[in-house]
Design a protein that fits this description.
Distance between the termini: 28 Å
Helix content: 40-55%
Strand content: 5-15%
Order of helices and strands: EHEHEHEHEHEHHHE
Shape: globular
Strand order of the largest sheet: 3-2-1-4-5-6-7
Amino acid sequence: MDLGISGKWAVVTASSKGLGRGCARALAGEGVNLVINARSRAPLEETAEALRQEYAVEVRAVAADVTTENGRGQILAACASPDILVTNAGGPPPGMWTDWTRDDFIKALDANMLTPIALMQAVLPGMMARGWGRVVNITSQSVKAPIAVLGLSNSARAGLTGFVAGTSRQVAAKGVNINNLLPGSHDTDRIAALDENVSKRRGISLAEARALRQAEIPAGRDGRPDEFGAMCAFLCSQHAGFIVGQNILLDGGNVNATL
C-alpha cells in the first residue's frame, strides 16, 4: 500500500533506538524526510546514517534533551514546520507509591506529558494553516490498564491522553489528526531494564524474569519495533484521515478488555 506521504517531513523524538527508531525507520521507508533526536550523539548519528543509506531520504540528527525547552528549540530549529510529529520520551523509573516525591512527579510530567504537549502547541498551527498534519504520541498500555510499579508513568501519560482527547477533536476539521499508540512489552532497552529490576527484586535470573512476563502475553512474545513502526506510519498516512483521538494498543493482547 502506498501511504501517500513520500517527500513529507517528520520530527521523531527519542528515535536513536527502540520504538522511536522503529517509527523513524518505517517513515523513512515511505520516503519521508526526518529530523531524529536523542540525547546521546553517537547512537543518534549511527541511526541517521543507517537511515540515509537504506532509504535515500534526508535525515537531520539533533542531539538534545527533548524534555527541556532548549532541547525542543533545537529540534524545531531543524524543521520548524513538520508535516508529521511523533513524540516519544523515556519513561520514568519504576517504584511504589511510597517512594515518590513531588519532584519525581514533576519530572515525570515534564517528560511524558508537558513535553509532547509543548511540541504539539508548536507545530499544530502550521499544520492547520496548511490543511494537513499527523501527530502520533507514543504512550503506554498503562493508559488502559495501570501498572502499579509504573505509577509515575501512569499519571503523566493519562494526563497527555486527556489533552489529546480534547485537542484532537478541535483540529480534525483542518485536516490534522492526533492519535496515541499504546505499546505493551516490546523488545527494547526499557523492557530489558524492567526485567532486570524484577530479576534483582525477586532473586531470579534475567531469563526467568523475561519468561514470566512473556507468559502473561497472549501472543507469547514481545513486540518488535518494526511492527510498531508500521502502525505508526499508517497513522501518519493519507489513509488515516478519519482516525481522530484514538488510543491504539499494540500489546499482543495483554490488556484483557472488550473495549
